[in-house]
Amino acid sequence: MKATSLILILLAVIVKVSATCTDANATAGAFIDTGFICYCNAGYYGTSTDSVSGGSCQKCPTGTNSVLATTTGTLVTSCICNDANSALNNGNTACQCKANFFGTPNPTAGGATGCTACPTGTASTAGSTAITSCSCNDTNAALKADNIYCVCKANFYGTPNPTAGGATGCTACPTGTASTAGSTAVTSCSCNDTNATLKADNSACFCKANFYGTPTTFGASGCTACPAGTISADGQTDKSQCTCPDVNASLNSATPPSCQCNANFYGTPTTSGASGCITCPTGTTSAAGSTTKYSCACPDTNASLNFDIPPVCQCNPNFYGIPTTSGASGCTICPLGQTAPAGSVTNVCGAAFTSSTYILSIVSLLFSIVMLI
Ligand SMILES: *[C@@H]1O[C@H](CO)[C@@H](O)[C@H](O)[C@H]1NC(C)=O
Ligand SMILES: *[C@@H]1O[C@H](CO)[C@@H](O)[C@H](O)[C@H]1NC(C)=O
Ligand SMILES: *[C@@H]1O[C@H](CO)[C@@H](O)[C@H](O)[C@H]1NC(C)=O
Ligand SMILES: *[C@@H]1O[C@H](CO)[C@@H](O)[C@H](O)[C@H]1NC(C)=O
Ligand SMILES: *[C@@H]1O[C@H](CO)[C@@H](O)[C@H](O)[C@H]1NC(C)=O
Ligand SMILES: *[C@@H]1O[C@H](CO)[C@@H](O)[C@H](O)[C@H]1NC(C)=O
């Protein structure tokens, strides 16, 4: 019994000593009845030539490492990239940065990573080498020029949604407007027509104040400036909506048109402040465009304004009476050959009052006296 045990122990020692692998890159492991199994060393993968004729333990790809195998026939995928932010490429030939990272993996174990995480809210495919491969999770956003964070693309506004697959946080600018990349508010969307502006509800563009028409979305403006000296509110579409700044004036039909005082006013329209158009004296009327008080006509066609302050209607020269405000004239014409001054109320008509008629009158008076005598 004792001798048999001793032989077995001796045998074991001899076998152990001779437990070497033919494959230089394998190490003997478990003992089975046919002998020791040779496992590929750390840093190698495959099947040793000891296990399979023609097999070999191959070196892991550059930048990767494997632990000493515990099974035969390990795959290349047992070789793990030294840079934790990288993984083997599809061909298992080299390490590349993992998805959502970019750069060049550090091949040295224990060193700093060569793969940088993409900025927040962005994603990249495995193997990306530059930050420009990190694309924003919000499809209507793009990395800002400094590549630090995502901003809404040109012609959008808002705050990008960082979560992939979520609703976009970037809203398209209203039709006919454009914005630069990075715009956050709809007010950054400016009308393509430079003479138009966004409506208060931001729904569309309309012509700016002092313009009229329909804005265009490209090319020449569809908004025409109001005629010189006239103004309009935002959103006017027709030239007639361009008005004179003087509330008592309107555009005339001249070419180019200009502002003139309305009918029954006279004066020179102002461009700001108080009206320059003064109401005609009570009971008188004027045509549009009248500039002086005396353009204000009396309703009695045979009367005119006098120069009193305030002026009043009086019968024209060679008429007498009280002017009427309607109907037939209250001014009666002097008999033929007789005259009366303007403003005559009673019949003061007489022969023209010249020095020659004066002398003639005296002469005829004297003649009459002589005749009577
Ligand atoms: C073992 O690996 C080295 C490289 O590390 C290689 O040159 C050699 O050929 C390998 N040996 C065998 C037997 O495959
Ligand atoms: C962006 O999308 C990527 C890929 O889907 C995802 O891994 C990442 O977490 C997303 N970013 C955020 C902030 O949700
Ligand atoms: C407005 O202008 C922007 C920038 O030029 C352009 O991208 C957009 O297509 C224009 N909008 C329309 C409706 O033409
Ligand atoms: C806007 O109006 C001004 C003044 O009428 C004009 O000079 C300019 O050309 C207009 N803008 C465009 C884009 O047509
Ligand atoms: C202009 O007209 C308005 C109403 O027509 C009137 O209230 C205002 O006093 C006028 N201005 C002048 C200076 O006459
Ligand atoms: C004004 O006088 C003329 C000439 O006497 C007369 O023909 C005319 O009818 C008068 N006008 C009115 C409105 O009565």
TrEMBL record:
The chain crosses the membrane at residues 351-372. Keywords: Membrane, Signal, Transmembrane, Transmembrane helix. This is Immobilization antigen. Residues 1-19 form the signal peptide.
